[in-house]
Amino acid sequence: MSESPKPLRYVDIGINLSDPMFAGSYHGKQAHEADLDDVIQRAKDVGCEKFMVTGSDLVESEEAIKIAQKYPGFCYATVGVHPCQAKLFDEYPGGPSKMIDELRKLAIESKEAGLAVAFGEIGLDYDRLFHSAKEPQLKYFEAQLDLAIEIQMPLFLHSRAASEDFERLVGSRLDKLPKGGLVHSFTGTIEEMERLVALGLDIGINGCSMKTQENLDVVKELPLERLQIETDGPWCEIRPSHASAKFLIGAPELPKSVKKEKWQKGLMVKGRNEPVAIARVAHVIAQVKGISVEEVCEAAWNNSIKMFGLGVKSQ
């Protein structure tokens, strides 16, 4: 494949930069100094120009907005409550309606300030009902979908083992959201992907989306005009045991990594995924689809900018 002179550029649409690991804290213990500046710079060095920092509850959404304020023009936030945190609505001081009011206020203010670009991470997760039961998940997913429509924010979505309920609730509302939404960290079947695409949703692909051969078959069939890419760091790295690993030949090398206890400035931490790895995600997708990395990057960039804006004036 001929090399394009145009530099590659990426949007990491799912990165958990507010996670304590990026402040050097693991399971409540400080292992090394905070290195978020270095993490972001490493990603910029490979062409990652935009980061969507995931909010997964009220507090984390506020943290995501603070990161967007600290790195203007590069980092943008999502605001929402993850399905595994749905129980927080019933536990909130003042009750669920008070928490919804707080979410509404935060989303409106941060959207108007140009800091938040999507409502999420919201959805359904029937794989982990031990975190939050099905009933509160359904109830507060609906409430948050209606909030996103009220505020007119595109959706940043999560769906695990809940396709029927998920598609019903989202599908009945998408006509009220001109920018639609994205199902991030997708691990479902080809049939599920095809139904989501038919609804008008984009699909986010990361290391967790390419663990198995079945996952890779989905990536191969996913239309380019519905593709967005992400790392979901500090999780979802591409591991040697994954079906995708065989496609890493010729992929950009990652900086040296060491155990967290041996950390030094400029090094990655073993087992802590970073947005610099976005280049490897794009490489594997290109290999699986039999197209150039340039095509993957350009399609994903255009899809992300079209849906989320990210401070880029539309052509």
UniProtKB/TrEMBL annotation:
Keyword Transcription regulation (UniProt): no
| The keyword Metal-binding belongs to this UniProt entry's keyword annotation | yes
Q: Which organism is it from?
A: Penicillium cinerascens
Q: Where does a divalent metal cation 1 bind?
A: 121, 232
Binding residue positions for a divalent metal cation 2:
158, 184
Q: Which InterPro entries match?
A: DNase_TatD-rel_CS, Metal_Hydrolase, TatD-like, TatD-type_Hydrolase
Instruction: Give the family this protein belongs to, as stated in its UniProt record.
Output: Belongs to the metallo-dependent hydrolases superfamily. TatD-type hydrolase family.
UniProt KW keywords: Hydrolase, Metal-binding, Nuclease
- GO molecular function terms listed in the Swiss-Prot or TrEMBL record: 3'-5'-DNA exonuclease activity; metal ion binding
Q: Name one GO cellular component term.
A: cytosol
Stated name of the protein:
Deoxyribonuclease Tat-D
